Amino acid sequence: MKLFIGSLSYNVTEGDLRHALEAFGQVTSVSIVKDQESGRSKGFGFVEMPEQSEAQSAIASLNGQAFSGRTITVNEARPHPDGRRGRDRGGRGDRRGRGRY
Fold first, then answer.
1. How many Å apart are CA 75 and CA 88, to the nearest integer?
2. What domain range is 27 assigned to?
3. d(Cα 72, Cα 64) in Å, to the nearest integer?
4. What is the pLDDT tens value at each position of the chain, 101 positions in all?
5. 100 in a domain, yes or no?
6. This prediction's pTM
7. CATH number at residue 15
8. Does residue 32 contact residue 55 with C-beta atoms inside 8 Å?
9. Considering its fold, how many domains does the chain have in total?
């Protein structure tokens, strides 16, 4: 089961997140989403746990709890409604017009 972890402190590492979730069972992957340009955390990430019961236990125990100074959100990850990952920026089209007079 894939979990969404939101409202993370920008200082939390994937290792920190893995350590916290392994208390509930096996963790197969951890990823913290980062800004492509700055490399800075966007404050949310995803954790995959193969056992649904362990993932549900993690949700029940961690959702709304303090983690590294922030109250985090933990729930089952849902696919993006239109099937895309993130915004479609069309290559470099998002920079169009910047710096022009």
1. 25
2. 2-78
3. 5
4. 999 999 999 999 999 999 999 999 999 999 999 999 999 999 999 999 999 999 999 999 999 999 999 999 999 999 888 766 655 555 555 455 555 55
5. no
6. 0.80
7. 3.30.70.330
8. no
9. 1
